[in-house]
Amino acid sequence: MKLEIFRTLWGNRSPWPQVFDELRGAGFDGIEARLPEADAERSRFARILREQAVPYICVLFTSTPVLPRQSDTPAMHLADLARKLALAGELEPRFINLLAGNDRWSLAEQVDFFGAALELGERAGLLLSFETHRARSLYSPWVTLELIRQLPALRFTSDISHWVVTCERLLDDPADDLTPFVERVHHIQARVGYDQGPQVPHPGAPEYADALAFHQRHWESIWNSQQRRGFAGTTLTPEFGPDGYLHHLPFTDVPVADLWQLNQWMARTERHHFHRFLGH
């Protein structure tokens, strides 16, 4: 099985030439970025993707990013998804990484919504990988496991750092059996969270060794499952980001680390980790 590592453009402010020079220089294989909804911006992005010839994972949000508008109904989310899938198809993404729904909906509403979303993906000819994320439908492992029981065709992006915060602990108790979820993970977002936050200041810091080890065990369980499922390749995006995720020093508002350096560290570490996993 081959590992492809994607660069997130979340928090990136560099010009396009620099983005791709840095990406290749650091050994990344592609980019993961939000869908440009404006026609001119999307057309320019499509041209850049063709010129650079790099794989692209398209990030979509139903309703508004990142938090959904609370007044939007499931029907409104589905209409928004159908519109955005049509736009995303123009960019020929590898697949769609989708942050969907709202954590406040009832389970019955969630089941109906995800069933309809799967149909929209099939109709558009795009694979939907639903991301685990706070404030969205998949904010909790227990809600997600219940959805799987009713909709086994769901496929997922695992960003387990969100669940660590939601449950306020590393999910390593013997009772925390996430097997049905692991068996359906399509893509990994590699950010290390801890019991009080979705992003440690630095994943290499010794005080967060237990958190890093937990996340790496989870990723290994996904790789094992993907091998059993016959995956020829797997994708991973180091996703340390801004917007309150990156720690800042009090009073000065100085960030404690550089995001690009953090994501490069994560990419190098997980490439080595993956090679060890394969026994190389």
Automatic annotation (TrEMBL):
Residues 20-190 form the Xylose isomerase-like TIM barrel domain. One of its GO terms (molecular function) is isomerase activity. InterPro entries: IolE/XylAMocC-like, Xyl_isomerase-like_sf, Xyl_isomerase-like_TIM-brl. The keyword Transmembrane does not apply. It holds the Pfam family AP_endonuc_2. Keywords: Isomerase. Gene3D superfamilies: Divalent-metal-dependent TIM barrel enzymes. This is Sugar phosphate isomerase/epimerase. It comes from Stutzerimonas nosocomialis.
